[in-house]
Specification:
Length: about 575
Amino acid sequence: MEYLEKVNLWKNNPNLEENLRKELDAMSENDLKEAFTNDLEFGTGGLRGILGAGTNRMNIYIVAKATLGFGRYLLTQSDVAGARGVAIAHDNRHQSKEFARMSAEVLSSLGFRVFLFEELRPTPELSFAVRHFNCIGGIMITASHNPKEYNGYKIYDETGCQLVPKEADKVIAEINKIEDYFNIETSLNHELIHYIGKEVDEVYINEIKKIILRPNLNKDFKLVYTPLHGTGQVFAPQVLQSEGYDVVPLACQMTNDPDFSGVKTSNPENKEAYDEAIDLAKEIGAKIVLATDPDADRLGIAVEHNGEYVLFTGNQTAALILDYILKTRKELNTLPSDGYVFTTNVSSTLPEAIAKNYGMKVEITLTGFKFIGEKAREMEAGKGTYVFGFEESYGCLVSDCVRDKDSIQAILMLCETAAYYREKGMDLVDALNAIYEEYGYYKEGIANINLAGLEGAAKIKRIMEFFRTTDIALKGFKILAKDDVKLGVHKDYETDKASKIDLPSSNVIKYYLNDNMWFVLRPSGTEPKLKVYYGVKGETQAAADEKLAALSKEVLSIVELIK
């Protein structure tokens, strides 16, 4: 259907929500093209888009359509799908609660029991709740760390794991069958909707506290915590306080504010997200600042070191936590002989080196924690023992009682790691430097190339096609091999031989370089941008910094030439 046909369909709908009609009437021709030419697609994080009118926007009609398609898919998975039900939660964003309620009404009208959290809850708790209630699936209304103009929709399978592509494709097929998304039934069986309050919180918290390895460490240091207005405020500070940590929540960001008015950015990957929290930390002498993103699946930290607050990357935090877990479990004689650590093909290879040093097997997945959740399911089936999983974008999972990233688990283990090293007279920067001394100085970087709109999407396509079809050369680096994950091909440049990649097809290209260096090109699945990831290793910090700067400069110079 052409975009103007879709526009007319919306404009001619007599029951169109009034706020959407006003927005539609005010849209320019270019606005209409952006909002209606494409339909929102499932990416690494399900549906995610700007709020507003249109098929390429997040609104109640798109949510109802997605939920009907998801419900129909679930009915094909089990004869008792409806009786098992679906768990639904939401974050603090504009219309999140309305989207959650709409999803519940669509599903109940299909005959599903629904376990609907009354108030905002973290994504990892929703993942936990799916198995706690023995549900057939789950829905989380969130746009994670995106700006306030966005909202999103994540779907989960019966294990609390986001749907992997082969299953998501089945949902998409069901969604695409729905033509009249303005008149989806939402009025039936509301008695099947069960409102959930704090009763799940206690069960979830008690379960994740089982990851604690050294409960009796000295915790004589202050922490500052901010949820960045998001769902972490529900119980993250209380969990820390219950374990004896001296944590001070940042009051101005401990509010359920969909405009994120007390913070410069809702993304803990951005240094400006910490400004207000670091100011408080300086005032009270806190040693660590903890920041969780709005749906509380990711953790960012800043550590006081020699009078300055040092921000850690997700890769560095994961390396610290993993090294501590493996070291401690070895000392406690609880390290499994069949243990597995999971990472992604855009993440640091330092945790991989650490894991192998302790005899752990390492498996590499695509970006998206659903792939690590899928691996956890394989462990449950008897392949091995899940020990740890992480991805570079500030997400990790210690206990697979949850099948998604879990910042509450990460907070507990990070603070325990800090307490352990503090007893040795070290802070977390010292601890990270000790790891570098042992394994080498690993350094990673990422370039986010923002390319919004239809023109931006077309340029991303041209860039990826160039790297896919052209044998590039780098002046200061030797290309050893290349993965084209979309085509499923690994090419070894030294032998000129090709082999098959054991990963799902995805629009990702990875280059392997000399001296354990690499870079990856990957269009974001949740934002209008091309991401370029880099990884290097040096004998010193300065050498690693120099290599990273040189590699980034060369790769981006090629990208910039593509018009």
